[in-house]
Design a protein that fits this description.
heterodimer, A: alpha/beta, Rossmann fold, 2 domains, 4-stranded antiparallel sheet, 10 helices, about 30% helix, about 25% strand, globular, B: alpha/beta, 7-stranded mixed sheet, 11 strands, about 25% helix, about 20% strand, binds adenosine-5'-diphosphate, binds iron/sulfur cluster, binds magnesium ion
């Protein structure tokens, strides 16, 4: 059973130099109770994907075609009021900057009351729930935290409060866009562990966006690898990290200095740049940087599938 | 020895005007850097890395301590005496685009150090030479900083840093925010130049994986102090300070089946306004004992491995199930 199904999604931005095709035929699923990671380098379309799901694309952006199925309903067909209700209850979000979710001039307790407006509980019960949630995200002295303002907390604590608020709604789907990128390593791992724990308790699904391979490997059940607006590979986390099929995934993993246990003074790189998405190549999107390229790569590659592990590459043989 | 730093302190005054309080952002730091070596300063945000770099570079007044660069004392020299030395020490700032004047073109930016130091040169030729050294084509001369990608902006920062043939480059978070493939390019470039030009480098970062590959020696900072320093490989193999061990264990690796053996830290980083007594790490240290809350651990300074802890860890030590103090 899938909570979210993205089907052949195409998103375009109008720009001075012509339409920019930020997402091209993107398809993947977020099954119930699973944590799915989307990984890729900057500009590959991670934020565009999330904004399309949430109905928050910039004014010059448009879903050209495709479906975003959430609990069997197509979000691309919903009007903005329906979308807003969905965002408030069934889907919640955590972003890189926790202040996007926190109002600086309202106390934490009041904000946590506000997000429970749908609940029939009395004020005292609601506050008790808030305290319980803050305790679960390990905010010290959670009772007194209710009367404090966001600026009185450190960056790591603010992010944990934002997570507490997102989880309070007991969403079906939590979307997290680089939530740990601004945090130091010790806080980053604490936040990952927290997300894992809360996900298990609440039983929601998580769509987790990051460019950090280590974090994805540790947190996620499934992984979607994106390059320049396309899904080039997807599979379980083990399939992706232990047995990458697509040359881009393979190169990306090799580039991560964390992956090399022996010390090297010369780190692997991927020479070249992302193609101009106003005029993407006709064939394989990675071709001009790929060291396994052949003539056939000038045509669009097929999607090859092996035991649920899929990659879009001519050189991958089933 | 190209740089020596002894007992360096930097004080800031924080809080509203009616209640200014001093904080020690750098609280007695000592270390040396040899000619041609790469020295890494690591630590979490707020540990004082940038402040320390600015102090060495003369961009920040110090409240105590001694520094010598190429055998000349920094803190007691007049600006006039320092000027000829300054050109041998270059800085790459933390924010690559923000530190470049937005209205200047790349071709002018890379030769700005010549103007600042009043050094005569054929600037056009120098600009071409510097851009090619950092792997940017001549076309980049006419671009503005906002037209550069993250990796290109770093390259411009590197070109500026090497413009006057320095002996030491201080690079503050040179790869923060870069994708892994671009991060590799920037680090390889710095490393190449270090070898070709015989530079020493201080690299400031919170990315330990990077440190492992590029640094000869490293120092770990906590609340403005160095808690452990030594050879990089040595420290990765056998971290002796509980904080170093924690940082190393908190390093997500791209392998879902890797045994994680993570050391988790209770509590948040203390405020610089309320430094804990005794060992300043004792409020979070899994190994802390009663003595740690009272006595400051002795530290040795200088080139040798040193650890500011009463009970340095044996290789592979695991934390006790419960802390022996609360
Ligand atoms: N509002 C916009 N107008 C034009 N182009 C955009 C807009 N938003 C994003 N893009 C472009 O779409 C592509 C994907 O961007 P984004 O989704 O932000 O990537 P990521 O989050 O993976 O870094 C990039 O080429 C980016 O420049
Ligand atoms: N100009 C300043 N005024 C007051 N406090 C400062 C100033 N610059 C830095 N600090 C404080 O000094 C400490 C060390 O900061 P910094 O050197 O930037 O750390 P790092 O580079 O390791 O993140 C922090 O607590 C920071 O808030
Ligand atoms: S001295 Fe004590 S408190 Fe400090 S790090 Fe060592 S064991 Fe921990
Ligand atoms: Mg993004
Ligand atoms: Mg800094």
């Amino acid at each position: 059973m899938n909570v979210l199904g993205i089907r052949n999604l195409n998103v375009t931005f109008g720009t001075e130099g012509g339409p920019l095709r930020a997402l091209r035929n993107v398809s993947f699923d977020v099954p119930r109770h699973r944590i799915v990671g989307v990984v890729g380098e900057s500009g590959c379309g991670k934020s565009t994907l999330i904004n399309a799901i949430l109905g928050l694309l910039a004014d010059n952006g448009q879903v050209e075609s495709g479906q975003i199925l959430f609990e069997e309903r197509d979000l691309t067909q919903m009007d903005s009021l329906e979308m807003q209700a969905m965002r408030g209850s069934r889907i919640s979000t955590v972003f890189q900057d926790p202040m996007g979710a926190l109002n600086p001039v309202i106390s934490v307790g009041k904000q946590m009351l506000h997000i429970q407006y749908r609940s029939d509980l009395g004020r005292t019960e609601k506050n008790a729930r808030s305290v319980e949630m803050l305790r679960r995200v390990r905010i010290p002295d959670p009772k007194s935290a209710l009367s404090r303002y966001p600026h009185e907390f450190s960056g790591g604590m603010k992010q944990r409060i934002a997570i507490a608020m997102a989880m309070m709604m007991e969403p079906v789907l939590l979307i997290a866009d680089e939530p740990t990128t601004a945090l130091d390593a010790t806080l980053e791992v604490a936040t990952i562990e927290l997300l894992q724990e809360l996900q298990a308790q609440i039983g929601c699904s998580v769509l987790f966006i990051s460019h950090h391979l280590g974090v994805i490997a540790e947190l996620c059940d499934d992984v979607v690898v994106m390059y320049a607006g396309e899904v080039v590979e997807r599979g379980t986390t083990r399939q992706i990290f232990h047995d990458p099929l697509h040359p881009y995934t393979e190169r990306l993993l090799r580039c991560d200095p964390a992956g090399q246990s022996t010390r090297t003074r010369h780190l692997p790189t991927i020479p070249g740049e992302i193609p101009d998405l106003r005029d993407p190549p006709k064939g394989c999107i990675f071709a001009d940087r790929c060291d396994r390229r052949e003539t056939i790569c000038e045509t669009a590659p097929p999607e090859v599938e092996m035991g649920g592990h899929r990659a879009c590459c001519h050189r991958v043989k089933p | 020895m190209i740089l020596t730093v002894r007992d360096l302190e930097v004080t800031f005054r924080v809080g509203p005007w009616f209640n200014r309080q001093p904080i020690l952002a750098v609280a007695g730091v000592s270390f040396d850097v040899d000619a041609g070596e790469t020295f890494a300063l690591v630590g979490e945000s707020g540990s004082g890395k940038t402040t320390l770099a600015h102090a060495i570079n003369g961009l920040q007044d110090i409240s105590r301590g001694e520094m010598a660069f190429m055998s000349q004392r920094i803190e007691t020299s007049s600006p006039g005496e320092m000027k000829p030395l300054r050109r041998h020490m270059a800085m790459m700032f933390q924010d690559p685009v923000g530190s470049l004047s937005p209205r200047m073109k790349v071709g002018d930016l890379v030769v700005e150090p010549f103007r600042i130091h009043g050094i005569q040169a054929n600037l056009q030729e120098e600009a071409r030479r510097l851009l090619s050294l950092v792997g940017l084509s001549g076309d980049f001369s006419d671009r503005y900083p906002h037209q550069l990608s993250g990796g290109q902006a770093r390259r411009v920062g590197v070109a500026r840093a090497i413009a006057l043939n320095p002996k030491l480059i201080i690079a503050d978070e040179p790869t923060a925010g870069l994708d892994v493939s671009v991060q590799g390019e920037v680090l390889n470039l710095l490393n190449d130049l270090r070898e070709r030009l015989g530079l020493a480098m201080i690299i400031i970062t919170h990315n330990l994986h990077v440190v492992h590959h590029v640094a000869d020696r490293m120092a770990v900072m906590y609340l403005g102090r160095i808690v452990e320093a030594g050879e990089t490989e040595e420290m990765f193999r056998a971290p002796a300070h509980p904080y170093t061990a924690t940082l190393l264990s908190a390093n997500p690796e791209p392998d879902p089946d890797k045994a994680r053996n993570r050391i988790s830290l209770p509590a948040e980083v203390p405020s610089l306004l309320a430094r804990p007594p005794g060992c300043e790490f004792h409020t979070r240290c899994p190994w802390a004992q009663a003595r740690c809350a009272r006595e400051t651990p002795y530290t040795e300074n200088g080139r040798k491995r040193h650890v500011a802890c009463h009970t340095p860890l044996a290789p592979g030590a695991r934390p006790p199930a419960t802390r022996s103090i609360q």
